[in-house]
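Bumping my old thread because nobody answered last time. Still need a sequence for this structure:
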């Protein structure tokens, strides 16, 4: 679940905040405002006095443990299903959904119709294949992408949803710096402007990537393929690093097992990028998204 709903999920009508408003077994939704999205989680009231709920409906079984939501019932609304009609909750949900539709239209209106068409066509030109842990995709011949991009990303496209027109994420160990050197002008690189303090972030990413590879470990550069507001397909670097620097483990002794030579490499790459420290998964972020 998101960390919690925003204040916009609260109406001037606050009948639902009182325990007297609820009965055990009432069906409801917990609403969370995240950006321009309204997320609704189905819950069942467990105890009006304690402010606890069960996830889902009672038909899903009663073996679940009740839990308390952030803000108790402040962001919970009756659904109106199989119970008396609740006017305050119905009015509040209508207002929230209407407001969210306006925000959604405003947000996606930031991309031109050409951009939306480009994104839709690229999405339709990916063949997805089920693999362990999800799906991986390949651009078809119909996709409006350079041939070399289709070839190097075959079977490497990952579905990745965002608040932008993202086509796919790519986590495979593709040597992107070399690809761009060999195919100049085919695909533009767009870096995070908030982190590009000197206008040279891509150069720093390339230096960091090469430093990792030159150290004798496998370098990875995770990227996103996105469509810009005017309809251009671009590559957006997401993170650079190596799985060999991954420290996400339950074994506390693992941290002592890292090759001591990596310490100097980590310091060097951190200083080169200036975008943040090494994350436990073995990657440095190169975007604030």
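Sorry it took so long. Here it is:
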């Amino acid at each position: 679940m998101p960390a919690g709903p925003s204040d916009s999920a609260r109406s001037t009508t606050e009948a639902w905040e009182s325990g007297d408003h609820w009965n055990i077994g009432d069906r409801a939704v917990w609403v969370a405002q995240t950006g321009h999205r309204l997320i609704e989680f189905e819950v069942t009231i467990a105890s009006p006095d304690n402010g606890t709920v069960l996830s889902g409906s009672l038909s899903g079984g009663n073996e679940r443990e009740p839990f308390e939501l952030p803000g108790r019932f402040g962001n919970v609304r009756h659904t109106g299903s199989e119970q008396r009609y609740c006017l305050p909750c119905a009015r509040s949900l209508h207002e929230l959904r209407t407001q969210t539709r306006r925000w959604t239209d405003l947000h996606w209106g930031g991309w031109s119709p050409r951009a939306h068409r480009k994104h839709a066509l690229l999405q339709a030109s990916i063949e997805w294949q089920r693999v362990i842990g999800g799906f991986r995709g390949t651009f078809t011949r119909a996709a409006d992408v350079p041939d070399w991009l289709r070839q190097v990303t075959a079977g490497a496209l990952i579905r990745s949803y965002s608040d932008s027109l993202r086509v796919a994420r790519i986590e495979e160990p593709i040597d992107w710096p070399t690809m761009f050197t060999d195919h100049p002008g085919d695909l533009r690189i767009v870096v995070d402007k908030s982190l590009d303090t000197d206008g040279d972030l891509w150069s720093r990413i390339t230096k960091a990537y090469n430093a990792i590879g030159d150290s004798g470990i496998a370098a990875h550069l995770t990227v996103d393929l996105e469509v810009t507001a005017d309809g251009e397909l671009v590559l957006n670097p997401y993170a650079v690093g190596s799985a060999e620097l991954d420290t996400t483990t339950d074994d506390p002794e693992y941290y002592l097992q890292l090759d001591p030579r990596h310490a100097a490499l980590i310091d060097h790459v951190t200083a080169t990028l200036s975008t943040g420290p090494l994350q436990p998964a073995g990657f440095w972020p190169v975007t604030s998204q």
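The mean pLDDT is 86. Let me know if any region looks off to you.
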